[in-house]
Amino acid sequence: MSKFSLFTLFLSATIVVIVAELMVNEYVKYPAGGKNLSASVLQSDMAPVPAPEKAVATTQEQAADVISYALISAAGFKDSSLQRIPFNGIMFESLDLRDFKSVPVTVNNLLENNRKTVATFYEFRANSRMLSTEVYRMLKDKSGKLIGAAVNEGNGFGEGSFYVNFVERPGNAFLVVNTGDNVYALTYLKELHPMIKSLLAEIVKGDSVSKK
Questions:
Q1: pLDDT confidence band for 64 (50 / 70 / 90)
Q2: Are 82 and 122 spatial neighbours (Cβ–Cβ below 8 Å)?
Q3: Distance (Å, rounded) from C-alpha 155 to C-alpha 163?
Q4: Around Cβ 135, how many Cβ atoms within 10 Å?
Q5: C-alpha–C-alpha distance, residues 148 and 155, integer Å
Q6: I want to staple 83 with a disulfide (CB 3.0 to 4.6 A). Which of 45, 56, 109, 194 is the partner?
Q7: Contact at 8 Å (CB) between 82 and 72?
Q8: What one-character DSSP code corresponds to residue 49?
Q9: 192: nearest Cα among 121, 100, 98
Q10: Is the pLDDT reported for residue 60 higher than 50?
Q11: pTM here?
Q12: Given pLDDT bands bounded at 50, 70 and 90, which one contains residue 15?
């Protein structure tokens, strides 16, 4: 046998041994790891998946305003729309509630022909008779301390209501109403009072139904 043939035979044997060792090492090294990986994938597949659609729907339901477009339409407002605005802590442009954190407050402007603001509605979402009574009393006390204003508690709406009469703004009405579970503050042009009265009747009826 020539030297070249011996060298070729030796090289082939060496390659076979190396390949065999690699195959054995790979088999011994990775079965456990491969098992763990399969288990991890299985556990991942079995893990509960959050339902973001349901969470979003719940948040939107909680954030929905009581005074809606359907409600103002039922009250007789025509060519009107609602504009949701953030509550800056000032009610009726005079009452400072920036430190008030007891209940959520939402604000909507009532727009005529999508341009002119003819009313503004504040909703204090107490969802509790005791808490709504506290909010109502707080608003009445603060309103009574305003300079150039007087409180007239006539209790003509809901379970309690009062007007705030501003000397310098005789053309607008400023009304606060406690429905038993929530409190609403409304400022509007006085000529809109008949429709505001109908709107409040719908609000009080709706809050009464939600309590049952």
A1: confident
A2: no
A3: 9
A4: 23
A5: 22
A6: 109
A7: yes
A8: P
A9: 121
A10: no
A11: 0.69
A12: low
